[in-house]
Specification:
The protein contains 2 helices and 22 strands. By secondary structure, the protein is mostly beta strands.
């Protein structure tokens, strides 16, 4: 467990108000404030972001402490206003000089930006994040209440190696470019923009892939122009089509083509053998009448299947159909 530094808070009452002072155990001033002892008891507080023990705070969350060992720092000031008898009146704002995370292999830094908001939404202005492996901007309003509208714009480039921080078993390479605008509500969001991945490669557990290229266009409530090609399991995979993002969006489809992949890499370790291979090619079309997996349908054929174990070989003698109904796949026995 990460031990957080102690905070000493002093309260001094005088002439109808209470002065608040917060100091870290090392003597560094963290916050000052005032509560007026009248009306709805308004509180105004100011926080020195440079004094925040950011590294300790972030690493006190298990998810982050298990995945990164960066040293975090920041500069700037934040202000909070709230009535002590009506906490829903909370408003806040911050002028952030910078936020920086120093990793053993590089530094990520956010340049000056502003934050403001209240209980219903948060606004970001001028956020620009850069590092050796990424660069992106973010502006907009992010709602907390389900009925509020979202308005967020972001664009940038990311080396996919950054995603390795999400899971110690993940290995990634390649580069992604994106330009995205989010709107609508939290329950019914809309998206416009594009995503492109070039020369993606990596591995997760026993699955490896390379030469991954992806193009996707988001058009309000649908993903259109999906084009994915990749080398995986010693074969090739190609997917194209469009998909709905929301229940009321028009239906979509995915056309699938798989050539000469070896399925033994997907078998449980106890079922694998050094001389065993299960090589197949298949094609088909998946229909998605609405968002979600439960209603997808589709059909296709297994064009070839060869099972080899040592010198023994079993091969299919013709095409074998497969179907998908209500999210479940069925393949007749050979």
């Amino acid at each position: 467990d990460q031990e957080l530094p102690g905070l000493v808070v002093s309260l001094v009452a005088s002439d109808g108000h209470v002065l608040v002072d917060g100091t870290l155990e090392g003597g560094e001033a963290l916050l000052t404030g005032e509560v007026r002892l009248e009306g709805d008891y308004p509180l105004h507080a100011e926080l020195d972001l440079g004094a925040l023990p950011l590294t300790d705070l972030i690493h006190s969350v298990a998810y982050f402490s298990e995945r990164e060992n960066a040293l975090w720092s920041a500069a700037g000031t934040a202000e909070v206003d709230v009535s002590l008898v009506a906490l829903g009146s909370l408003t806040y704002g911050a002028n952030v000089g910078f936020v920086e995370a120093s990793f053993p292999d590089g530094t990520i830094r956010a340049s000056p930006f502003e934050i403001s908001g209240g209980m219903d939404q948060l606004s970001l202005t001028g956020l620009d994040v850069s590092g050796e492996q990424l660069r992106f901007t973010l502006d907009g309003e992010i709602p907390f209440a389900s009925g509020e509208s979202m308005d967020v714009d972001s664009q940038g480039t990311v080396d996919l190696e950054v995603l390795e921080r999400l899971d110690p078993g993940l290995r990634m390479g390649g580069r992604a470019e994106f330009n995205l605008s989010l709107g609508g509500s939290r329950s019914e969001p809309t998206a416009t923009g594009s995503l492109r991945v070039q020369d993606g490669r990596g591995s997760y557990r026993d699955l490896e892939w390379s030469s991954l290229n992806l193009d996707v266009v988001a058009d309000d409530d649908s993903l259109t122009g999906i084009q994915l090609t990749a080398e995986a399991l010693n074969g090739t995979v190609s997917v194209s089509g469009e998909l709905p993002l929301r229940p009321q969006a028009p239906g979509g489809f995915l056309a699938l083509e798989v050539r000469d992949i070896d399925l033994t890499g997907l078998l449980p370790p106890e079922h694998r053998q050094p001389d065993l291979s299960v090589i197949t090619s298949t094609s088909g079309r998946i229909e998605a009448p609405t968002a979600g997996l439960e209603k997808i349908t589709g059909a296709g054929v297994i064009e070839s299947l060869a099972i080899r174990a040592g010198e023994a070989v079993v091969e299919s003698t013709g095409e074998v159909p497969w179907r998908v109904e209500n999210g479940e796949i069925s393949i007749p026995e050979f």
